[in-house]
């Protein structure tokens, strides 16, 4: 069975992706910072789908934790897919740049950019060995559009997009997709803009866009989930 590492997988989009892949028979290595919630997610997937699911709680900015994730995947057979979904906002709620704590910006860059690249580096040998190795980095429309208060987070996701684009050029044997999932009802968005109570789609509603990438394996690049769901690229 193929093996995927998914970061930020205890809830939201990460959990929805894990559910969809487990339903397809994938074995999984899941990361999140809250052990109890992560273990509950992993147990539910094992019980429902019968696949092998390894929960590895920790912080993706920690080198030892990243090594644990890749070692766990190796025990399951390798790494066919790496999904960098774990994200940090930099401030909760979001703030204008004039007030953004620099330590918060550093945290967003460490989680969203540095740790994502470091995990790719850790897993690269196994990804190259996979028949259909792929990397997915979860982006944001804030990486491409200027929204008030989203400057720090958007800058980190823009940097991640560029790293993904260069990785796709440097690793032609892999598929490297940066995916903007669009608006979703997640804890991350609620923390970013707590006063916004407008209804938003559930994370599971965009999962078919990610599955389309895995099924069709288009060229490495940046994709928007709404376009993929409409049948466009």
UniProtKB/TrEMBL annotation:
InterPro entries recorded for this chain?
A: NAD(P)-bd_dom_sf, Sc_DH/Rdtase_CS, SDR_fam
The enzyme's main class, written as a single word, is: oxidoreductase
Superkingdom per UniProt: Bacteria
Q: Does the keyword Oxidoreductase apply?
A: yes
UniProt-recorded Gene Ontology molecular function terms: oxidoreductase activity
What keywords are annotated for this sequence in UniProt? Oxidoreductase
Entry's EC annotation: 1.-.-.-
Q: Which Pfam families match?
A: adh_short
Q: Which family does it belong to?
A: Belongs to the short-chain dehydrogenases/reductases (SDR) family.
Task: State the protein's name.
Answer: SDR family NAD(P)-dependent oxidoreductase
């Amino acid at each position: 069975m193929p093996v995927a590492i998914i970061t930020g997988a205890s809830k939201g989009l990460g959990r929805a992706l894990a559910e969809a892949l487990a339903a397809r028979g994938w074995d999984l290595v899941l990361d999140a910072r809250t052990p109890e919630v992560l273990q509950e997610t992993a147990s539910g997937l094992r019980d429902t789908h019968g696949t092998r699911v390894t929960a590895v709680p920790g912080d993706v900015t920690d080198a030892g934790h990243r090594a644990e994730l890749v070692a766990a995947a190796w025990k399951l057979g390798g790494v066919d897919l790496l999904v960098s979904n774990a994200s940090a906002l930099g401030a909760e709620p979001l703030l204008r740049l004039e007030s953004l704590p620099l330590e918060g910006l550093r945290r967003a860059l460490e989680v969203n950019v540095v740790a994502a690249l470091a995990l790719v580096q850790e897993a690269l040998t196994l990804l190259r060995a996979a028949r259909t190795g792929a990397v997915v980095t979860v982006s944001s429309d804030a990486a491409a559009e200027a929204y008030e208060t989203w400057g720090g987070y958007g800058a980190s996701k823009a940097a991640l997009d560029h790293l993904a684009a260069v990785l796709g050029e440097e690793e032609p044997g892999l598929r490297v997709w940066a995916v903007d999932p669009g608006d979703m009802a997640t804890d991350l968005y609620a923390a970013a803009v707590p006063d916004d109570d407008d209804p938003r789609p559930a994370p599971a509603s965009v999962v078919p866009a990610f599955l389309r990438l895995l099924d069709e394996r288009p060229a490495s690049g940046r994709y928007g989930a709404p376009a993929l769901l409409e049948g466009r690229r």
